[in-house]
Design brief:
CATH class of one domain: Mainly Beta
Structural class: mainly beta
CATH topology of one domain: Methylamine Dehydrogenase, Chain H
Order of helices and strands: HEEEEEEEEEEEEEEEEEEEEEEEE
Oligomer: single chain
Number of helices: 1
Strand content: 35-45%
Length: 299
């Protein structure tokens, strides 16, 4: 598909342009916000981010002929490992979460905007759909929601009994789902902290994601199960069981399929309505722990 080939072209250009810097640090996370039309020459804006041990590398738009010509901007604000990075919905800001208990908010030009002081080491960060809040997950079993502009903590959500691995806001922003090592998914009202607990998995839940219309939620676990949930009732709608731990899951833009990364070095695609086997994509030589669909992608 043309859009996906262009996305891969951008990744290749970013890595080639940044190869000298990348060789100095093992990188943990790649995330991107690519806004483009059809051809590389028509690119409007491009950002790509790699988080290493304590460093964030950001490449931003260069010339229209080569958007990566400006090379990476290195940012070293954290004192410990950077575990997660996330772009705001408008792609104007970048949040980085670290075990040093700080969440840094950056302008994508490279300037540090705010430092959010979190009372625990952060392992995952995400923006609310309106970009006004930042939710942080911790190894201390807690979820903290902060004001993305002022930095003040709005609410701390308590309920998990082990590390929180990932978070996902519903598209309307009225619910926040958290996946935990305690084998549960908790769906919170981020305003008052009320929650619904989902308890079908038999091992650590690593990832959770909402469909674009908010009607479905997907969860993935080390137990090898992908579960699809009805967000209105909290009931499980479908289940896929494989013989591999699963690290990450997301909905395909058509909301008919989920894509997930497995411990057996594969990426799989599953049609959640046909209940058949998943399609296995191979090529990686080690575990793939995270991925993201390019912006404005199409089925």
């Amino acid at each position: 598909m043309k859009e996906h080939r262009i996305f891969i072209w951008h990744i290749q250009r970013f890595i080639l342009r940044s190869r000298q810097t990348l060789s100095q640090w093992p990188f943990l996370v790649f995330t991107g916000s690519l806004t483009f039309e059809v051809e590389p020459a028509e690119i409007v804006s491009s950002f790509a981010t790699i988080a290493s041990y304590d460093t964030i590398l950001v490449s931003s738009a260069g010339t229209s002929q080569d958007p990566w010509s400006r090379g990476p901007m290195k940012r070293c604000a954290h004192l410990r490992a950077v575990c997660s990075v996330a772009y705001s919905p408008d792609s104007a800001r970048l949040a980085s979460a670290s075990r040093d208990r700080d969440v840094e908010l950056w302008c994508t030009t490279g300037a540090l905007l705010h430092t959010l002081r979190i009372p625990f080491p952060c392992v995952f960060v995400t923006f609310s759909p309106d970009g006004e809040k930042v939710a942080c997950a911790s190894e201390s079993n807690l979820v903290c929601i902060c004001d993305a502009k002022g930095g003040a903590s709005i609410v701390t959500l308590r309920g998990h009994t082990k590390r929180v691995n990932s978070l996902a806001y519903s598209p309307c922003g009225t619910r926040l789902a958290s996946a935990s090592k305690d084998r549960t998914i908790r769906v919170w009202n981020p305003v008052d902290g009320s929650l619904l607990t989902l308890q079908k998995h038999s091992d650590a839940v690593m990832s959770v994601a909402y469909s674009d219309d908010g009607s479905l939620m997907a969860s993935a676990s080390f137990d090898g199960a992908v579960r699809i949930w009805d967000t209105a009732t909290g009931h499980q709608k479908s289940l896929l069981q494989i013989l591999s731990a699963i690290y990450c899951i997301t909905f395909h833009p058509d909301n008919e399929r989920v894509v997930f990364a497995c411990n057996d070095e594969s990426v799989r695609v599953w049609d959640i309505h046909r209940f058949g086997p998943s399609v296995r994509l191979e090529g990686h030589t080690d575990t793939m722990e995270w991925f993201k669909w390019p912006s404005h992608s199409h089925p």
